[in-house]
C-alpha cells in the first residue's frame, strides 16, 4: 500500500517526515533517507498494532422548527435598522454594471 509522506528539511539540519494519511505518525532523522526509512517503519508498526473500523455516527436530531423562531425579534429596537441596512446592501449589490 502506498502512503504519501511530507518530508521537510528542519533548521537543525535534520529531516521531518509526516504521513499525510496518518498525521500523528511522524519522525525526525538526521538524513532524508533515514527519515523515509523510519517513517516507513513507523507506519508499518502503527498498522500492525491497530485496526481500521468503519463507524456510522447518526446525525443529530434538531428539535427546533421554523415556526418556533417567528417573532423572536419583535421587541428588538435595532431590528428595523438591521432590515434597512440589508435592503441597502442588496440594492447596492444588484446595480447593473457601469461602463
Explain the layout of strands and helices.
Elements: E1 5-9, E2 15-19, E3 26-29, H1 32-48, H2 79-93
Antiparallel strand pairs: 1-2, 2-3
If you had to describe this structure to a student in words, what would you say it looks like?
By secondary structure, the protein is an alpha+beta fold. The protein has a domain at 5-48. It has two helices and three strands. It has helices spanning 32-48, 79-93, and strands at 5-9, 15-19, 26-29. Strands 1-2-3 form a three-stranded antiparallel β-sheet, with helices on one face. Strand 1 and strand 2 form a beta hairpin. The longest helix has 17 residues, at 32-48. The model has no long low-confidence stretch (mean pLDDT 88).
Amino acid at each position: 500500500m502506498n502512503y504519501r509522506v511530507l518530508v521537510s528539511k528542519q533548521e537543525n539540519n535534520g529531516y521531518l517526515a509526516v504521513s499525510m494519511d496518518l498525521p500523528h505518525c511522524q519522525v525526525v532523522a538526521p538524513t532524508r533517507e533515514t527519515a523515509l526509512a523510519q517513517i516507513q517503519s513507523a507506519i508499518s508498526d502503527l498498522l500492525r498494532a491497530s485496526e481500521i473500523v468503519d463507524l456510522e455516527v447518526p446525525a443529530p436530531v434538531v428539535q427546533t422548527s421554523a415556526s418556533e423562531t417567528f417573532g423572536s425579534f419583535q421587541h428588538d429596537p435595532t431590528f428595523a435598522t438591521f432590515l434597512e441596512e440589508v435592503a441597502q446592501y442588496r440594492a447596492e449589490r444588484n446595480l447593473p454594471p457601469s461602463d
